[in-house]
């Protein structure tokens, strides 16, 4: 069985919504890198998009169905492409936890509780 996966690093394509084009925002990316039909970069600013308060989107409802009410989503002000934050960035935002254990491994506690 051949795996037909596209392995271009950093350009994973998230699940698309019926009425929106969805991309993954790279670390620190602030401008849209979508190409227009002439092959030029769009360059529009990516702004946080609060779709729960967007009247037009509420009529559509795609985003809320896919991500819930309060997901972090950015939208190009120019071509309206949606950008999801890079999953790698989100890991850095985990607050209130000291160490993140290795995925899939249950690490034994290294220290006894000191009272
Ligand atoms: Zn754009």
Describe the structure.
With 115 residues, the chain is α+β, with helices and mostly antiparallel strands. It is 16% helix and 12% strand. It has three helices and four strands. It has a four-stranded mixed beta sheet with strand order 1-4-3-2.
What ligand molecules are bound, each kind once?
Answer: zinc ion
Number of helices: 3
Q: Major sheet, described briefly? A: 4 strands, mixed
The number of E-state strands comes to 4
Query: How much helicity do the residues have?
Result: 10-25%
Give the termini distance in whole angstroms. Answer: 57 Å
Mean pLDDT: 81
The secondary-structure class comes to: alpha+beta
Low-confidence stretches: none
Strands side by side in the biggest sheet: 1-4-3-2
Rg over C-alpha atoms, rounded to the nearest angstrom: 19 Å
The fraction of residues in strands falls at 5-15%
Short note summarizing the structure:
By secondary structure, this protein is of the alpha+beta class.
List strands and helices in order, with pairings.
Elements: E1 22-25, E2 46-48, H1 55-60, H2 62-67, E3 74-76, E4 82-85, H3 87-92
Parallel strand pairs: 1-4
Antiparallel strand pairs: 2-3, 3-4
């Amino acid at each position: 069985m051949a795996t037909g996966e596209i392995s271009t690093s950093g350009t994973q394509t998230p699940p698309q919504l019926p009425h929106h084009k969805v991309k993954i925002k790279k670390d620190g990316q602030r401008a849209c890198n979508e190409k227009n039909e002439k092959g030029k970069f769009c360059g529009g600013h990516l702004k946080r998009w609060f779709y729960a308060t967007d009247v037009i989107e509420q009529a559509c409802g795609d985003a809320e169905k896919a991500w819930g009410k309060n997901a972090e989503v950015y939208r190009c002000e120019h071509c309206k492409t949606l950008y999801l934050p890079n999953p790698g960035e989100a890991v850095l935002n985990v607050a209130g936890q000291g160490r993140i254990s290795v995925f899939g491994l249950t690490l034994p506690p290294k220290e006894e509780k000191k009272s």
